[in-house]
Amino acid sequence: MSDTFFSGAPHWTWFIIPYFFVGGLAGGACFLAVVLDWFGGPEDRPVVRTGYYVAATGAILSGLLLTIDLGQPLRFWHMLFQSANFPAIMFKAWSPISFGAWAILLFGLFSVLSALGAMSEEGRLQAPAFRVLHRGALAKIVAGLAGLLGFFVAGYTGVLLSVTNRPIWADSPWLGALFLASGASTGAAALILLAPRRGATEQSLRWLSTFDSRALVVELLVLVLFLVSLGAINRVWLSFWGLLLVVGVVGLGILLPLRLHAQRRPVASAAKLVLVGGFLLRLATMLASEGISRFRVAAGM
Amino acid sequence: MPEPMGFFTDTTVCIGCKACEVACKEWNQLPAANGGLGELSGDSYDNTRRLDGIHWRHVRFIEQFKGPYDGRWLMMSDVCKHCVQAGCLEVCPTGAIIRTQFDTVVIQSDVCNGCRACIAACPFGVIDINPVSATAQKCTLCYDRLQVGLEPACSKACPTDSIQFGTITELRARAHQRVDQLRAQGVQAQLYGAEPDGPLGGLNSFYLLVDKPEVYGLPAHPQLPTRTLGRSATLTTASAAVLGLLALVGLRKRRMEEVAADSSGAPPLPPSSHV
């Protein structure tokens, strides 16, 4: 029996699962927006702006979900500053939850600045000060930082789970890569669904659709590697969560969208399925482990 | 600087009286479970069942019965192991978990914000949320009593000296002596967590067991949570590089197609219509 079966469940459930999904989606969308911002053309601007809006909204929502989930929400700042020695910084580079707290804060800051730049670009903010956020080198640097931090947030959630002593999570080093690939695919799916309202061009949507297909293939490969690395631990999937993983995540969330992309069906249907699959991936991996209780294992139940 | 202090629990003399549980609850003013209404496990005399935020001591009952006249009870008073390399302390993002001058591990309840990272990090499942404070809590090895020269409440209350308190050096010597004594009597005794070069640098609360650690609900090879950090971060970074490359390759391919279409005089693609 793996030694991870003797640890206790942290009760990371109904706020943390949506946070992992929203954070991944926002990070993936931001990264793709930055790629188009830096290397795309004028025809990609509607997708770029949508990406920054999705990123800013997702980052703020992520921060709120994380804070509400704390036992003492008003002490959220203890993760950022030393409570007994304010304003000394609280940071542990070897603790994913510590550097994750800083990453979400900074991702929120830079993505909100880029979203303000996008609003200025659309003429919704008239003040000249905001123009520097969508034109010139400063705008590119701010967006670049938002994209990097966004991708970091999408992946660190999986690393955070791996750096525990819980079954499934700590038994494989692939969760970070899996959540990152899922963040990229759900980010692309969110942009495919939302960007047309802002006038996204056919070229941009086709690029997003192609990227989404490739990200789904990467996600499937990483998922297989994740399961292989679990070895004997895989018996925990002989449950409802295993069924959800196979049918919901692999079937509905990866294989069916890939088939729809291959058949060149309307990309919105595939995108919706990718979003459902991304959420179910977090749900299955979180709750399959949360359900394993130390005292039941010790009692042979 | 005081010497490292801790517990040596000799499970062979535990009688399951639960005086340690009561003394711990009383001294630390821990609330009753289930509003004070007794909840029976139904399959054991062990009704506490686990360590958590309001049970910092737990007398585990292990009932090994092959038949009505062939069996034994193993009893072990479980507690935080005060690991020399503590996973909870390692991951705590608020600095609420500290190592004291006695080499014990203590959660400062006024600093903890209840993120629960320590619960998942502990290889022994010791920590949980105390619903009254809404923060993570566990045994403090009676830090308040130690600071004024008193013995922890549980070991003070233990009527059989199953729980022994003292300096780690002294406890280790006593534990090895007891193992030798038991082995001379034909009992398969072994120490768990007593060796400084063992898992987690040794445990400041270690045990004498007469069966495999798993039987007592203890992991055979407890490890630090950060053991996967390097591999996990590397694989995540590598997959980020792959995804970034795929995005750029797609963009480059699109550019090449546009250039090819421009040079052949084909009309530009229409605006979005297929979503």
Can you walk through the features of this model?
The complex is a heterodimer of chains A (301) and B (275). With 301 residues, chain A is an all-alpha fold. Chain A has one domain (3-298): Formate dehydrogenase/DMSO reductase domain (Formate dehydrogenase/DMSO reductase fold, Up-down Bundle). Chain A has nine helices and no strands. Chain A has helices at residues 16-39, 45-69, 96-121, 136-162, 175-194, 202-230, 240-262, 267-290, 294-298. Chain B is of the alpha+beta class. Chain B folds into two domains: 5-222, 2-Layer Sandwich (Alpha-Beta Plaits), CATH 3.30.70.20; 228-264. Chain B has helices at 19-27, 87-91, 117-121, 143-147, 153-157, 168-184, 229-264, and strands spanning 5-10, 58-67, 70-78, 97-99, 105-107, 128-130, 135-137, 163-167, 190-192, 205-209. In chain B, the strands form four sheets. Chain B has a four-stranded mixed β-sheet with strand order 8-1-10-9. In chain B, a hairpin with a 4-residue loop joins strand 6 and strand 7 (135-137). Chain B starts with a strand and ends in an 11-residue tail after the last helix. Classes of the chains: A mainly alpha (301), B alpha+beta (275). The interface between A and B is large, with 83 and 76 residues.
The name of the CATH topology of chain A is: Formate dehydrogenase/DMSO reductase fold
Return the domain count of chain B.
2
Total number of helical segments of chain A? 9
| Strand coverage percent of chain B | 15-25%
Largest interface: A-B, 83 and 76 residues
* Order of strands in the sheet with most strands of chain B: 8-1-10-9
Would you list the SSEs of chain A in sequence order as H and E?
HHHHHHHHH
Mean pLDDT over the residues of chain A: 94
Low confidence ranges of chain A: none
The CATH superfamily of chain A is identified as Formate dehydrogenase/DMSO reductase domain
The helix/strand series of chain B, from N terminus to C terminus, equals EHEEHEEHEEHHEHEEH
End-to-end CA span of chain A: 14 Å
- Derived structural class of chain B: alpha+beta
How much is the radius of gyration of chain B in Å? 27 Å
Spans of at least 5 consecutive residues with low confidence of chain B? 271-275
Oligomeric status: heterodimer
